[in-house]
């Protein structure tokens, strides 16, 4: 046989193990992993871009100059992404007689309690919903809790404008049949029906004036989401995708080396003269 043909047959024989069941499965798994990891990398890239955009919007809103609340919202208005977290001001009077609490909200230490939602009646009779902050449950959540009073009389408040809460956005179910003056979600349309008044769309998280004695506990700034972590995951998945064929080829080379070593040992044993 021609030497070239012999070398070709030898080379083909070296890779025949790739047709075994074990190696066919391993190869198919490797082929499937590559596009899956690439897709996961693109998903992390999307999350990075989404979180970065959100962080930029929040940062811009928090830095923006405070404006009167009615410049950004009105009855029936849906607060937009660019309006959310804007600092707004309003002058009016707190109506504690129609105050409600929002169930299953956590404080800064993770304890479950209530958010205090107080109607704030403006000079023209319209109502702004003010989330004055968090208070502990202090026992069973079926009873209406004791709530520190807000400033009496005409006052000016500031706060971050927020969109109406929905089950779709928050994941919180709007349960019916709750104890009196307790709600699950802050929704201006629902509160307008309850109050029988014109209610500005959305609500505000009060930031000023600070409550006496520190209660209710005011809600802190939203902070930024960890977008760089998603960027790191994106790079990680793509490195994994690149590493799969490298790892597969490394295993192939190791298998060939093991076969060659085994063949060499067999040839050595066959060539050795038999001892009498």
UniProtKB/TrEMBL annotation:
Keywords: Cell membrane, Membrane, Transmembrane, Transmembrane helix. It is found in: Cell membrane; Membrane. Coiled coil: none annotated. The chain crosses the membrane at residues 23-43, 231-251. It comes from the Bacteria. One of its GO terms (cellular component) is plasma membrane. InterPro entries: Surf1/Shy1, Surf1/Surf4. It is a multi-pass membrane protein. Pfam families: SURF1. Belongs to the SURF1 family. This is SURF1-like protein. The lineage of its organism: Bacteria, Bacillati, Actinomycetota, Actinomycetes, Kitasatosporales.
């Amino acid at each position: 046989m021609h030497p070239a043909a012999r070398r070709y047959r030898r080379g083909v024989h070296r890779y025949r193990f790739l047709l075994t069941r074990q190696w066919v499965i391993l190869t198919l798994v490797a082929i499937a992993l590559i596009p899956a990891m690439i897709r996961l990398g693109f998903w992390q890239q999307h999350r990075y871009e989404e979180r970065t955009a959100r962080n930029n919007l929040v940062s811009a809103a928090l830095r923006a100059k405070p404006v009167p609340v009615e410049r950004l919202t009105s009855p029936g208005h849906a607060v937009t992404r660019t309006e959310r977290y804007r600092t707004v001001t309003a002058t009016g009077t707190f109506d504690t007689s129609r105050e409600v609490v929002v169930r299953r909200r956590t404080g800064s230490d993770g304890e479950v309690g209530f958010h205090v939602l107080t109607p704030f009646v403006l000079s023209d009779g319209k109502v702004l919903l003010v989330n004055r902050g968090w208070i502990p449950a202090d026992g069973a959540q079926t009873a209406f809790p004791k709530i520190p009073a807000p400033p009496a009389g005409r006052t000016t408040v500031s706060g971050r404008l927020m969109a109406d809460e929905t089950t779709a956005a928050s994941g919180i179910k709007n349960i019916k049949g709750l104890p009196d003056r307790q709600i699950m979600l802050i929704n201006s349309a629902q509160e307008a029906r309850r109050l029988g008044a014109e209610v500005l769309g959305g609500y505000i998280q009060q930031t000023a004036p600070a409550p006496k004695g520190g209660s209710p506990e005011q809600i802190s700034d939203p902070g930024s989401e960890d977008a760089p972590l998603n960027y790191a995951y994106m790079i990680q998945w793509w490195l994994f995708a690149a590493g799969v064929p490298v790892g597969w080829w490394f295993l192939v080379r190791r298998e060939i080396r093991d076969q060659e070593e085994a063949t060499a040992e067999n040839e050595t044993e066959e060539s050795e003269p038999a001892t009498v």
